[in-house]
Please model this.
Amino acid sequence: MKRMQNVRGSLYPSNKVWHVLALLVVLSVYLFPKDGYAQETTDTMCSASCEPECNGSCEIPLKLYELDEVILIAPNKEIGYQKQSKPLSSIDEYLESSEHVKMIKRGAYAWEPTLNSMASERLSITIDGMRIFGACTDKMDPITSYVDVSNLSEISVESGQEGNEHGNCVGGAIDMKLDTSPFKEDYLKVSLDEGFESNNEQKITGVDVNFAEESFYLDGDVIYRKANNYTDGNGEEVLYSRYEKFNLSVNGGLNLNDEGKVTASFIFDQANDVGYPALPMDVSLARAFIGAIGYEQYNVGIVKNWKSKIYANSITHIMDDSQRPDVPIRMDMPGWSDTFGFYSQAELEHSRHSFLVKVDSYYNRSLAEMTMYPNDSNQADMFMLTWPDVRTWNTGIFVQDAIALEKGNMSLSTRISYHRNWIVDEFGLNSLRIFYPEMEASQHRFLASFGSNYDRTINHFKLAVGVSYGTRAPSVSEGFGFYLFNSSDNHDYIGNPDLKNEQAYEMKARISFQKKSFTASLQGSYFYMPNYIIGEIDESIGTMTIGAEGVKLYRNLDYASIANVSVQSEYLLSKNWTWKGSISYHRGVDDTNRNLPFISPIAYGSSVQFKKNRIFGEVAMDGAGEQVNVSEVFGEDKTEAYTVFSLSIGKTFTVSKNQLYAKAGVENIFDTYYSTYTDWNNIPRMGRNVFVTLSYKII
Ligand SMILES: [Cu+2]
Model:
């Protein structure tokens, strides 16, 4: 067996080869400089959301490479509203409609984003650059669940090391950008939003007020959603799938004589009575306070833009099983996560180079408890710290140089961080010392990453390639979790403080063809990941959760590898009709050729869109083939192939100078019963759903 592994291992380039390759890429740019510019502006980073209202505060797009994706949110603007098939849908649904993000579902609420077949611990997920960490040991509260569409203008999805600007990651980054008003004379916008969905009787109500003068802006919005249990394609009610959510946000800005600005933002988000049909527990409260103060200056000497922000956020997550009728033992599992941080970044331009230098730091406190109440009242309650008050301090520097070459563009970036973890709670530390007697209360590590991208346009073709290296520290659960129950593979998980950093050597390429009426792109990424972190069965340890099959300990594998390939195309059929299509394939295996969990089978989508006289229509199809590469060790079974259809139609009306956006549609038209590889424990998806949304803009 050992020999087999070695043979397979030799098929991969060794670490040395990668390092030499990377070094050559860097040296080639600085040793053989070329004169002249070929800089192209990106059309995505800043287009629809801030183009008309840039007002000097618009960020200079340093990213020249088209390996990323921007998801436009802006339900307050006609194009943003009508472009999305369901404009008042949750952030989760917006993310799911993206090309590269897939969502793991444990219920109807708070889905977990994955990018390049990697989930949250391998990604950097931020709100306007702010680090924020969920407070649930069972991943019931991804960061994306603490914002709503009313807060955001766009979400930027950056693949692999293109995301290292926001923090250490291996899979990529998702940054959600807050929506703020421009500095503009007599600017007042009020919008009222209403939505209704038939399947789970979801009601959505929102109010958005934006007020600005040349010297300041003030934005406020509230949105409220309430949904009952949904029904699947067989007409069965999916129990514990209801939720209720309230979100409020306030943003303010002061214009400093067009030389800079001071900004402040605050988000309050609270979800109550959230059911998780795929899990044995529900959430009675998930609450976040998210605040930041920023300062920005334009054109200070050679610095074009200098931006700094300090921030703080606090999350409370109360998880229990009080709604479940039959449980072997009652449990309460509250969790808390507080984060404080800052970043300061400067954009400089010199000759053909555009530099971005960023210094950032955050401090996080993660604490989670579990109390078990035996049915026999003579037995004592059991108490555990599942996250033993773990503190994390991470501080780093990021430098990027975007270079306009004679032919094409190049970008080089690096991030170096110092990462420290320490356990404050003595009881929690002693609990972990049962398994790791030598364990220290504190540990530290260094994280380094490097990214390189090159792109070039040749006639109608655009070619983009990238070679990168990244590392990440283990997450709090992976490093210090204590008996975290995973209901998918039915095992208790125990963290491992001795884990090494996970690494990723990454290669990616994209070739796109663009003509007036036709665009198509083919892209692929390959990640070779030494020290891949995953839970492995340890038969010497007894379970804690009643009914659990065994215990898994987090380990570093020798390596794992993940490959993703996708094709997208768009064809302008006529002035009013557009066709879009996509297909993707993913594969992930470990060092012994076992399948990794949550890897998509072949997936495809196609849609036809219509636009005329402010009428917008769409018919769409989405589906996936049978899941052939199943990870049984991680609780997966084969997911059947499926195809579902949806349609939507929208129109914009002008009512005495004001705008009324209306949209209605049907999802899962044929009431198909299905679940996908991302559905935890195979919970079925929603059956047929009719929705209506209305937005009235008073200008
Ligand atoms: Cu939870």
Observations:
- Residues 136, 138, 140, 283, 317, 319 surround copper (II) ion (CB under 6 Å).
- The two ends are 71 Å apart (CA to CA).
